[in-house]
Amino acid sequence: MEARLLNAPIFEPLTRKCLLPPPFSFSRGASIPIDNRSGMRHTRRVLCQAMVSKDTVDISNSPVLDTSIATLGDALAAPPSPPPKRVSADSLQFPPGYLGAVPDRSGSDGGEDGLDAMEYLTRILGSKVYELAIESPLQLAPKLSERLGVNIWLKREDLQPVFSFKLRGAYNMMAKLPKEQLEKGVICSSAGNHAQGVALAAKRLKCDAVIAMPVTTPEIKWQSVQKLGATVVLVGDSYDEAQAYAKKRSKEEGRTFIPPFDHPDVIAGQGTVGMEIVRQMKGPLHAIFVPVGGGGLIAGIAAYVKRVSPEVKIIGVEPSDANAMALSLCHGQRIMLDKAGVFADGVAVKEVGEETFRLCKDLMDGVVLVSRDAICASIKDMFEEKRSILEPAGALSLAGAEAYCKYYGLKGENVVVITSGANMNFDKLRIVTELANVGAEREAVLATIVPEKPGSFKKFCELVGPMNITEFKYRYNSEKEAVVLYNVGMHMPSELEEMKNRMKASQLETYNLTKNDLVKDHLRYLMGGKSNVENEVLCRFIFPERPGALEKFLDAFSPRWNISLFHYRGQGETGANILVGLQIDKSDMIEFHERARRLAYDYVVVTDDGVFQLLMHT
Q: What's the pTM value of the predicted model, to 2 decimals?
């Protein structure tokens, strides 16, 4: 696939029919949208506008790395299949808690190729997962339930032997392989939970397993796989490259490729989660909230639950920057994200599975999108509830359920949340603690313009009043006005509004920057006085977390252009968040984009960001 220049249009805007209740017709406390269906058919229609963002860049031609663990050679020589439509995650966003991307099933006749619902029900009932996996407990969350006025039940898949539900699908598929296939071995590609599931399943079945993982995989993750007895191959900068290697080696050696989600036996294995919920839940159930990456877990749960308890809503939850399923449902076909946010790396999937999408568009009830901040808040909620630390993808459905209950004013109902995994990278806890209170709306990030004169700082503090300042940054600017960047703690949103009104009455202009990721990731650490750098182009890059990544970046742009700003923000992920400024004349921008294309690091230009202008430029 050819890398694309930033700001280059990918394809024409596409408008599809998609069942979305009017997004702002339901206020907080409003009734739940009525689910009018006959059998599996919905009747409400509305146009879903899915516009493709122009700020995109595709990483597909990164050079393959020859590591100390394996030599890749020409593993990626096989030509790729024609790619699906590429879409920006920003092209489809909902208010927090809003149930969107409701599939349009009015024209579905159920006649597509693939297993029918009864076949999946039979496969789930006959699954072999309990030879290795446990029946995870369904636990009430009393603190959350009291706070929300809803009975929140936690389906504890984080308590599985490998701390993730992924074990179910991997083992179910592998246990059904003929003996002669098992003797040839298995292979998969994964950056985490699926790898551990395959490795443990192979150990139980006494077969040889090879796990292809990107070289950017944190050491703790690939070592965990290695300790389970599998052969770990570190290859490529991305999951796509690792997958290409695994599929090629599968053909060369006759190994069986174990996909992470898009296979009937994998889906059936994950579907045992739904079977257990139906058996364990006593009393009526309003909804099951399921994290969505490739769609294997939600497809399996829906295939069982909708067959035996069709009144139960099956609601997917995706990060707002990794919403491949929501966009696919709105487009009426599978799409590919131009880039997927990697904070919740367990669901950072650009394209959902073919079979999983077929099931989801017929069975699931919609998608709730949540922010990174909301995920962090739910990780904290789970810790306070059970003293357990979930990984971001593991807390995803809890964040969605909390937002949904608040948005629709749901009370007195039973809601199940899948806590899908607890393989947390320890380094990521830093950003979780920083953003948890922001996500819970107990902390706000603000900027106030104050006059540069004696007494103004004291007056500012008096206006903040009883609110607790949790972070404060100010630097003399040698001008008439200065910008103060600060965080305040709060118990109620009304407190923040009252403080802003006090500032306004005193003619101190105040900006709420709580939802601005550029501020939270970078600018809060760069407050040191404004400057005006000639021809400065500001970009956000994602660097692979591996030795040599910075040197490769510098080789691409230096000494051709002067670097005027550089801020590295490690987040315990496979990719580091970088803010960089380069002095580039307008006539050189085409050359810059071409060099960035060859570099093949995901990036976006943010020079015109209003907050950057406010905080950093004169």
A: 0.77
